[in-house]
Amino acid sequence: MRETLHGETALITGASSGLGAYFARQLAARGCQLVLVARRAERLRELQAEISTRHGVSIDCVAMDLVETDAPQHLYNQLNGLGRTIDILVNNAGQGLYGEFTAVPWGSLHQNSSRAYLQKIFIFSLPPFQLGAVYSCS
């Protein structure tokens, strides 16, 4: 990761705790503006206050469950309406799958397809090579 990211914006899903919050702190320390997405609005606001105080970067928070039907598209539309261009996507919401594929519950497959859909929206909606980085965590 580059040392400075001033003028760039990162979208971080699953940002309210764990790896998502860690990525938010690290990217903000490098001057990156943030869009934080998670289900827990209160945790997002707490993280926003902490990071804003420490690093002074612009932070937008979106309380949303990305597993909900059309949530990835709704998020994209919302950010597009605000004129936000995403340079870095940290796709951290949800959890990975493990075990025998035929034994995985259908709901878990839907959750992971939502993550893939979100990635596709942001990657293919931008001109070639505009998205600087994609990190997909589980």
Task: Report strand %.
Answer: 15-25%
How many extended strands? 5
Distance between the termini: 20 Å
Q: How are the strands of the biggest sheet laid out side by side?
A: 3-2-1-4-5
| Helix content percent band | 40-55%
Mean pLDDT: 82
Radius of gyration: 15 Å
Shape: globular
Defining key terms:
138 residues, alpha/beta, five-stranded parallel β-sheet, 4 helices
Q: Strands, helices and their partners?
A:
Elements: E1 9-13, H1 18-29, E2 33-38, H2 41-55, E3 59-63, H3 71-81, E4 88-91, H4 106-124, E5 133-136
Parallel strand pairs: 1-2, 1-4, 2-3, 4-5
Structure description:
- A five-stranded parallel β-sheet has the order 3-2-1-4-5, with helices on both faces.
- It is globular and about 45 Å long.
- Strand 4, helix 4 and strand 5 form a beta-alpha-beta unit.
- The chain starts with 8 loop residues before the first strand and ends with a strand.
- Helices cover 41% and strands 17% of the residues.
- It contains four helices and five strands; from the N terminus they run βαβαβαβαβ.
- The longest helix has 19 residues.
- It is an alpha/beta fold and 138 residues long.
- The relative contact order is 0.18.
